[in-house]
């Protein structure tokens, strides 16, 4: 299944898309390894692309934007170079930063298996054709995204993977889940 991407912005207006995370410095010339949160890196990471940085308030990069100079591939891993980040010391200050771009509402989805978080929030959650709750929000975790589903028994965290969430029907206003035993509270007989 393609990467399912989410929209959840560090800014209050929630008009940005999370597209990547800088994982570690690469080499001595300011390069950084990039973990992609997009199915189409060439569309997001081109020379001149500008990113808002999500970093701790104590970071010298807090509240700043950064411009991409170049995207390269080393052993099938994406590596990025930014304007003004010219050595390893500067690159180290950006490790763990999350990269955001401005959303273009007219832009088509990156793939058939990609949705924005705002499209999923509020959808009815069905199991075996029966409504069991609603999607409250999406939590972005390192391994995969989690759907936070509100049920009559409380909130349930559902891994957003095709084996558990095989159907997303935006037009119909629902998702179908096929959870493993115990994910949702089971009635005992």
Task: Return the CATH class of the largest domain.
Answer: Mainly Beta
Pick out the low-confidence regions.
1-13
Number of structural domains: 2
CATH fold descriptor of the largest domain: Elongation Factor Tu (Ef-tu), domain 3
Q: Judging from the principal axes of the Cα atoms, what is the shape?
A: elongated
Overview of this structure, please?
- The protein is elongated.
- The protein is 7% helix and 41% strand.
- The two termini are 36 Å apart.
- With 189 residues, the chain is mainly β.
- The protein folds into two domains: 16-102, RimM (Elongation Factor Tu (Ef-tu), domain 3, Beta Barrel), CATH 2.40.30; 117-176, PRC-barrel domain (SH3 type barrels), CATH 2.30.30.240.
- The longest helix is centred in the middle third of the chain and has 5 residues, at 88-92.
- Strands 1-2-5-4-3-6 form a six-stranded antiparallel beta barrel. A six-stranded mixed beta sheet has the order 10-9-8-7-12-11.
- Mean pLDDT is 84; it is low at 1-13.
Describe the structure concisely for a colleague:
The protein has 189 residues and is mainly beta.
Give structural attributes.
single chain; 189 residues; mainly beta; Elongation Factor Tu (Ef-tu), domain 3; SH3 type barrels; 2 domains; six-stranded antiparallel β-barrel; six-stranded mixed beta sheet; 12 strands; 41% strand; disordered N terminus
């Amino acid at each position: 299944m393609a990467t399912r991407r989410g929209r959840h912005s560090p800014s209050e207006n929630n008009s940005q898309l999370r597209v990547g995370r800088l994982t570690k410095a690469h080499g001595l010339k300011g390069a950084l390894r990039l973990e992609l949160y997009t199915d189409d890196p060439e569309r997001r990471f081109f020379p001149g692309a500008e990113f808002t940085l999500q970093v701790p308030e104590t970071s010298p990069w807090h509240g700043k934007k950064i411009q991409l100079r170049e995207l390269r591939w080393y052993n099938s891993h994406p590596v990025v170079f930014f304007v003004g980040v010219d050595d390893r010391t500067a690159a180290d200050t950006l490790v763990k930063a999350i990269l955001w771009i401005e959303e273009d509402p007219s832009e088509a989805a990156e793939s058939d298996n990609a949705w924005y978080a705002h499209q999923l929030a509020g959808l009815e959650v069905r199991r075996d054709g029966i409504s069991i709750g609603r999607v409250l929000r999406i939590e972005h975790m390192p391994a995969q995204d989690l759907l936070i589903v509100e049920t009559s028994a409380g909130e349930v965290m559902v891994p957003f993977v095709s084996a558990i969430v095989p159907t997303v029907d935006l037009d119909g206003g629902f998702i179908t889940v096929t959870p493993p035993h115990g994910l949702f509270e089971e009635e005992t007989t």
